[in-house]
């Protein structure tokens, strides 16, 4: 009678799925985030413990997706996208309203369906271009634009401009990497610039206020401009080397709003200064570079498009968050990746990292 025993080699292959360089970069950013969150959330008991739970869940999601081959993931593109659209419609019909926005729905637990569309939309687009790769024509790009616009419009109506922007960035990355001409991109940019006078009156009042506040926050220093002014003071007061961990006055005197979530970069900048900012920017640059390297070595069009879109999500998260905290972009409610406190967004980032690791792990496979 043959004793099969435990197949340790197979178990090891499922455990050792993490791409070393990518995992190290994410670990360093997450560690930096926990240290900063401890300081930023010192007046919020349990905030660090909750974030550690979010990290654990994100880690598990990352591990599961890293074990799923891109070919298998592609089979679920249509169901995941369709389910996400159905949830967005459900939110529009009977979702929960918080702070004037209808973004959440209770399905036993309270979830924000727009977050899953950051992955579901590029997943669907990557599937579509993989199926049309042999006979790709201009009308395929039009159909892809419709696939992208459906969730973007539903999310923008919640209203949630920040998430809509991230979905646009991830989806457009797929369309561009699939072969969209630079001339078309330039034409779209010029058309968008020309449409500003038409689009401006269509924006919500608070959205117009955010743009005007970005241009000159001093027009309402105690109201709409308070967020930007206080975050700029925190970033500037950090100086070259920072005030030191736990010694940020803007944060601990509660001048920085949302200091554990969207404005955690202001807390970090005040305590670790210009040197700390340079280190953090380098870490995010390495994250993007590693993602692009994985995309370049992907074995199939689908894998390459997914890896490229996930990398664009990471870049857009970091760029927009740092830009709004520094006052060069409007405040749109985008968290700093792997640093800001939050559950759904952190899990979404874990899903993206897991997809990158899956693509890297299966880089030598050739789709039949």
TrEMBL record:
Record-listed E.C. numbers: 2.4.99.28
An MF annotation (GO) of this entry: peptidoglycan glycosyltransferase activity
Record's catalysed reaction(s): [GlcNAc-(1->4)-Mur2Ac(oyl-L-Ala-gamma-D-Glu-L-Lys-D-Ala-D-Ala)](n)-di-trans,octa-cis-undecaprenyl diphosphate + beta-D-GlcNAc-(1->4)-Mur2Ac(oyl-L-Ala-gamma-D-Glu-L-Lys-D-Ala-D-Ala)-di-trans,octa-cis-undecaprenyl diphosphate = [GlcNAc-(1->4)-Mur2Ac(oyl-L-Ala-gamma-D-Glu-L-Lys-D-Ala-D-Ala)](n+1)-di-trans,octa-cis-undecaprenyl diphosphate + di-trans,octa-cis-undecaprenyl diphosphate + H(+)
EC class: transferase
Subcellular location as annotated: Cell inner membrane; Membrane
Sequence intervals crossing the membrane: 21-40, 76-97, 141-156, 162-180, 185-203, 272-289, 301-320, 340-359
Membrane topology: Multi-pass membrane protein
Record carries keyword Membrane: yes
Superkingdom, taxonomy of origin: Bacteria
A Pfam short name: FTSW_RODA_SPOVE
GO BP field: cell division; cell wall organization; peptidoglycan biosynthetic process; regulation of cell shape
Pathway: Cell wall biogenesis; peptidoglycan biosynthesis
Keyword Transcription regulation: no
Keyword line: Cell inner membrane, Cell membrane, Cell shape, Cell wall biogenesis/degradation, Glycosyltransferase, Membrane, Peptidoglycan synthesis, Transferase, Transmembrane, Transmembrane helix
One GO CC annotation: cell division site
Role, per record: Peptidoglycan polymerase that is essential for cell wall elongation.
HAMAP family: PGT_RodA
UniProt family annotation: Belongs to the SEDS family. MrdB/RodA subfamily.
Annotated protein name in UniProt: Peptidoglycan glycosyltransferase MrdB
Organism: Undibacterium piscinae
Taxonomic path: Bacteria, Pseudomonadati, Pseudomonadota, Betaproteobacteria, Burkholderiales
Gene field: rodA
